Amino acid sequence: MEPTYDELTQRNIGVFTPEEQARIKSLVIVIAGCGALGASAAHFLARLGVGELRLADPDEFEASNVNRQFAAYVDTVGVNKAEAVAAELARINPSLVTHLYRTGVHPDTVANLLEGAHVVIDAVDFFALGDELALHREARKRGQWVFVSQGVVEITSTTCFDPSGIALDDMVCDQGRPSIGRAIESFFPVLPRAATPQLVARAVTGELPSVPSDVTGAVYGAAFVVEDVVRVAVRRLLPHVVAPDLYVFNQDDLWLRFWDARHKAWRES
Fold this sequence. Notes:
By secondary structure, the protein is an alpha/beta fold. The protein contains 10 helices and 11 strands.
């Protein structure tokens, strides 16, 4: 006999009140991108008992994803990421409703993707700024919070976008046009040790399609994002951090610091 929802989530009670758990069950959350960050966030949300996830990703798993991405296995290489993640989530939380958007974030479908959602997790590839901006602009029009984390090697940064506050455009655009250089400056006030000037230059010019990453960075980023989703959508509090400010985590040295973007300084949170 299959366990009930209440049995599967019983250990949540005490962390959450019964009323908050009911709120979790009612949530509709968009996850744009089902790679390292998005798939891990979906995994955590499924175990929390979220009611509906909308998973958007046009890509298929590759062998190079197996080192860090939830639902990436040898036998899912070549399978659409959103599809593979949804199959794994059904094993965790059979009552979870998943809707798949195999075309990813697309101008023709982004309105439908966000319609009626409570919050949005932006896990779009860092180099796909056009898709990311389309997602944020639509969410902003709808008054939806957007949660994002970016990770490179040992550095993970996290922030949240208030629909009435600063926009992603303000952090990643230069004279109205998407700029990888501007995005790096905004999301990484400190760079990984391996980020030489030559490597950064290749990223800015688009010659670097991917960056080194492992499983721990993805999990840290997803945990930070899900904690703030819970604060906003379940506990109805403000998140720990709001853009343009960041929380920055260094997993090698095990420090977590608050970056005050307006004053370009580290400070106590």
